[in-house]
Amino acid sequence: MQPGQQSNIPFIPGQVPHRTRTPLLRHRTSSLASISSEQSEIVSPIPRRHQLLQASESRHWLPSPSVSPVSTRGASPSISHPATSPRSHRLPKRTRVNSVIQQDGSRTVRFPSPSHLAKRVHPPDEEKKQSDEGGMARRWVRWMHKQGLKQWVLPNAILISTLLKWCVGLGTYSGHNTPPMFGDYEAQRHWMELTIHLPPRQWYTYDLEYWGLDYPPLTAYVSWICGIVGSWIDPTWFALEQSRGIETSSSKIFMRSTVLFFDLIYVIALVMFTRVWQGGRSSRTQHSALMSLLFQPALLLIDFGHFQYNSVMLGFTLLAVNFFACGRDLLGAVCFTLSLGFKQMSLYYAPAIGSYLIAKCIYLGPVEGRHLFIRLALVTSATFALLFLPFLPPFAPPSTILHPITRIFPFARGLFEDKVANFWCATNVVFKWKIWFPRGALVKVSTGLTALGFLPSVVGLIYSGYKRLLTTPGDNVQPDDVKKAVSAPPPFLPLLPYALLSSSMSFFLFSFQVHEKTILVPLLPLTLLLSGSSGDSETFELAALVNNVAVFSMWPLLKRDGLATQYIALLLLWNRLIGYNPLRRTGSLLRYLAMAIYTACVALHVIELIIPPPTRLPDIYPVLNVLISTPVFVLTWLWSIKRGIEVSWASGGLGSSHSHHQAPPLKHQPSNDSTASSSSTTRKFSSVEAGKAKDWQWSDGQKNGAAAADGVGLGEGRQGEVFRRSVGYKQGTGILRTASVGGVR
Amino acid sequence: MSTGVSPPTDSATLRTRSKASKEDEPASQVDGPREEEQPKQPRTWAESWRLDMANVDWDTLYMSLGLKFLLFRSYRSTDFEVHRNWLAITHSLPISKWYYDTTSEWTLDYPPFFAYFEKLLSIPASLIDPKIVDLDNLGYDALPAVLYQRTTVVVTELLLGFVLLRFIRGSVDPSLQRLISASIYMHPGFLIVDHMHFQYNGFLFGILLWSILMARNGNKLASGFLFAVLLNFKHIFMYLAPAYFIYLLRSFCLSPSGELLPMHFLSLANTVILVFTVSLGPFFLMGQIPQLLSRLFPFTRGLNHAYWAPNAWAMVTFADRVLLKVVQYFNIASVAINEAGVVSASRGLVGDTIFAVLPNVKPIHTFIITGIFQAIFLVKLWRIPTYKSFVTALTLCGYTSYMFGWHVHEKAILLVLIPLSLLAAENHAFFRTYMIISITGIFSLFPLLFTPAESVVKVVYLMGWSIFVLIPLNHRTYEFPASRPFVVIDILEKVYLTGFVLLQVLFASWAVIPQAIEYWTYIHTDPLKRPPKQDTPVASTGMEFLPLMMTSVYCAVGLIWGFLRLSVLYLRQSQEVAN
């Protein structure tokens, strides 16, 4: 877009009465492209989706615009009142004037037909800004599409992210040039050396003092493959014992490229995620969501800077989640088992995934559910058995299996090692846990607290499954429908990301032996949620904040690794990419909290740069870092529980008993439903009117209905509350209806 | 020019513009297809300096900053130490000893303005880490030094970004100019030479483009002033001086009918003299001018650099090598072989290039050839002293010097690539020329970064840059080839450009081949009993310069073809206008 145009025809609201701004007049001054794109946001038909994906509406926890046939959005010329547009007071400053006018108008003027919606055009100034809105990713994708480079977007996004990953890898890594023990880089390299020279039986017992293998067997196999390939190129890189601490430039390049290669799993999972979970949305939205996931700074810094293979574990988990969303539960279970077999850290997800699968079994009813359960159990144990095959009896003495197990779960180590932003380390400032309590008690307490932490999400999932039971006695559900439901995502699928977040965050906060890098595990579901949220939603705000704080919480580690410039560069880039400006004031409580936290972070960095830590308190800066970061993580954990409850409520899991099965709610609540859809449309309309039309905007309203509202929640106050009561619940029942119709019919 | 586009005029421009340029740009009133895109007139001085950055511009800035930050820890050449040493010289020695110091082998050999510039940079450096400016602390590359010096490159390059922004403001098609500006700001050449290899080209080209911008806006005095300043920063820009001289003389000092405008002439002359006085004055007073000149122009080097810059002489040298092989193989007695040349051929390294078969080239020959070619273009410029003509002539002047100059360094290709970018979207012919020269020229810079990790960066970055810049420009300018010869040329050019992929694959695998050979030789030996390996690539097989030579020759083909293309385009275009 050209700046010249922008500045030449200024829009002066006072001079032109808004009612006389006929569509025709505004047509003339606006560019054709943006009109058509806006039209598509308002009146274009809903993209047809695969029948498999259409089975359940409620999976659009990530907003998808599959409006039910009852609520043709144009045909709802309803009034908008403040309660249905809770977010209008959070508009960016520059659109505020216009939005006030529109708001005013929408109160008095009733738009008679959808054509008005379609032809609603903003003055050129506004339009320019709209097309400039969003993050760099969005603008870039839009530009690429306009240049006719649509098919290049995906490969290029991956190309650029690969370039950045490689550039991060140009720097130093964990344990660079620090004999005798070096760091994580040397650990990974050592395992490659170990696995190619020793039989599997010795993998978990060989010289444990020097980086003994303490990840599950899949890591060992991957190391083995890397070691074999590396030895083809240069055997000295992985000579047994001789190669310890080898840091030649060629071996570094080889190691870095192995990370990049296995990162492919994660990239593929991300692409699949945008296709599966955001399948109903425009390709631009999918692409920009993909970008915000590809460039996530925390993962890039740890995997490609610090040196680890977390993306493999996360990639497998994400693949599992994607397969669940496709209804391929068995494949998903295999993927998740692989994830567990790569790093035990994905155990953090296990409560959520396990209870999701159990809930699905319950939901399917006694017959199909039991079948599914047995198949899942068989597949999972078979995968585990395959993974541990070299350590099992025919190939090794029975006691061998204990070696990996004891290595993988190091309860012999302390409650926490370095400073990590979790509950134990943060409260350690006051309560000296390690000194006051024996280790055994701490293990029990931490396990109990962790279980308590993920309990709400587990209960929520299972209870949803139970409530949405397909076959209750006296119901006339056809067996064929149940069979179909086996391979379709269940209605409580939207709960899964929240459950993943809440369970992994409770592990991070409360469990035993947590590393600061483990924050990557809860970050994955949160960033997935971010990628699907609109730029002004609460999810977006919180997820961006937590991502930034997570990177900040790893600062002591990154500083030790010499990754300071990468830290700054990636944070800058990613925030720009997703269009997050920490300094923009929006007036929400969350934003003020975020600003306070950013101020604290920056202040800490500046103080650390200027003043060396006092000799009496050498750890003062890491501790302060922990104290700043932990509250944010605790907040996220609480938020995930709250959102879990909201979503399950909205999707009907916590709704009233089985009654809806006996009597189809379609007959029950036609009026309710139309109100719900119309008010959600109004909401959408008014927010779009207010100069915020975006591709993802139109589905935003849907999400607000479906997932019980972004507008609701932290710091939203009374308006949000009203909104939830008036819309969320009704919309929730609407979703319930469509879901049960879709699922059962 | 055939397309008839020239920069729009505004009132400020008209005031300063001479009659000559008014006549030369008849299209200026016609060319605004979209009136609303005419730039706003800067009313006050402050307003004219205002940043008019759209979101997209910020995006470009963020992206480039992010990438450049990430490259802080990448490979850096000895130029890093050169500049650190200059920081130390200018900080710890009095001005009278700057051009005499020989503590390090990297003596100060840039003109005084650059020395002043280093003096300026050394002040914060001394505050951050005094060891940076310690003269005897040779080869110091601790983290603070790296971070500081890399940061200065990034920060001073912002001047380039600023000037490029200004290019957008007054252009005919801002969205197109924005693409071109972004392509220059994110140019792989700068990424390779400045942000990895380490130099300050971004800043210097910022001054050059500023000067060109002033010429576009009609402020020719400022243009001349800025170019004089630039010359005193880095004297390699003398390659471009003839074009400036002719352009300013014809369009500023002379009226269209050819009468001398004494006021203009005097003001320009005084400006240039003033700049040179500020720069060289102190050294003139100290009587150090001969010493300074001997530092700036060391005529002790050979025809070619270690890695032959892909120009005409690379082709000649290559021909000599081939002929030598032929003569030796067929044992042709009638051809006299220069023994020194044989040694030179097998050595292929630094030092004087002596031909074995062909007659040797002396500096004077290169000057004469360069002069003849430049004269041809300058005559055209004299006849059509418009802005577009000026930029083309400027590019061709730099190009000629690069093609036929004595001891040309491969980095000098930036003198061609950057001004040429401004012309990239003139029409399809220009675009194709631009594409060939850009890809070839950037590829010819690749040997500057020989470490494998950085090789990945340069290759991937060039790929990304080409997609983002070349494809949209191609869409905008595309024309179907007019006749059969053009179709053939079109295909040949595509084949040539595809060849770079093969060349890069060969180049990349060349590093692995010795290792692979070694591996298969020792395959039955116990790995631990093999001879220990060095980190440096295996050398002295006699063939290690083959990939370099092939790169040089292959790029030379493309660059010579690009030179011919651009020359023909320029010369033909002038005829059309003349008709």
TrEMBL record, chain A:
Keyword annotations from UniProtKB, A to Z: Endoplasmic reticulum, Glycosyltransferase, Membrane, Transferase, Transmembrane, Transmembrane helix
Predominant localisation class: endoplasmic reticulum
Biased composition (Polar residues): 65-86, 97-106
Compositional bias per record (Basic residues), positions renumbered to this chain: 87-96
Entry's transmembrane regions: 152-173, 218-238, 259-277, 289-307, 319-342, 348-365, 372-392, 441-463, 492-514, 563-580, 592-611, 623-641
Protein family according to the UniProt entry: Belongs to the ALG6/ALG8 glucosyltransferase family.
EC number(s) given by UniProt: 2.4.1.-
UniProt membrane topology term: Multi-pass membrane protein
Gene Ontology MF terms: dolichyl pyrophosphate Man9GlcNAc2 alpha-1,3-glucosyltransferase activity
GO CC terms, sorted: endoplasmic reticulum membrane
Residue ranges of the region described as Disordered: 57-134, 656-714
Residues of the signal peptide: none
Low complexity composition-biased segments: 671-687
Biased composition range(s): Basic and acidic residues: 122-134
PANTHER family for this protein: DOLICHYL GLYCOSYLTRANSFERASE, DOLICHYL PYROPHOSPHATE MAN9GLCNAC2 ALPHA-1,3-GLUCOSYLTRANSFERASE
Annotated pathway: Protein modification; protein glycosylation
Top EC category: transferase
Pfam families assigned to the protein according to its UniProt record, in alphabetical order: Alg6_Alg8 (PF03155)
Protein name: Alpha-1,3-glucosyltransferase
Subcellular location: Endoplasmic reticulum membrane
Automatic annotation (TrEMBL), chain B:
Catalytic activity: an alpha-D-Glc-(1->3)-alpha-D-Man-(1->2)-alpha-D-Man-(1->2)-alpha-D-Man-(1->3)-[alpha-D-Man-(1->2)-alpha-D-Man-(1->3)-[alpha-D-Man-(1->2)-alpha-D-Man-(1->6)]-alpha-D-Man-(1->6)]-beta-D-Man-(1->4)-beta-D-GlcNAc-(1->4)-alpha-D-GlcNAc-diphospho-di-trans,poly-cis-dolichol + a di-trans,poly-cis-dolichyl beta-D-glucosyl phosphate = an alpha-D-Glc-(1->3)-alpha-D-Glc-(1->3)-alpha-D-Man-(1->2)-alpha-D-Man-(1->2)-alpha-D-Man-(1->3)-[alpha-D-Man-(1->2)-alpha-D-Man-(1->3)-[alpha-D-Man-(1->2)-alpha-D-Man-(1->6)]-alpha-D-Man-(1->6)]-beta-D-Man-(1->4)-beta-D-GlcNAc-(1->4)-alpha-D-GlcNAc-diphospho-di-trans,poly-cis-dolichol + a di-trans,poly-cis-dolichyl phosphate + H(+)
Superkingdom, natural source: Eukaryota
InterPro entries reported for this sequence: Glyco_trans_ALG6/ALG8
Subcellular locations according to the entry: Endoplasmic reticulum membrane
UniProt entry tagged with the keyword DNA damage: no
Entry's Gene Ontology BP terms: protein N-linked glycosylation
Transmembrane helix recorded as keyword: yes
EC number per UniProt: 2.4.1.-
Topology in membrane: Multi-pass membrane protein
Pathway(s) of this molecule: Protein modification; protein glycosylation
Family: Belongs to the ALG6/ALG8 glucosyltransferase family.
Protein name: Alpha-1,3-glucosyltransferase
Organism, as annotated: Cristinia sonorae
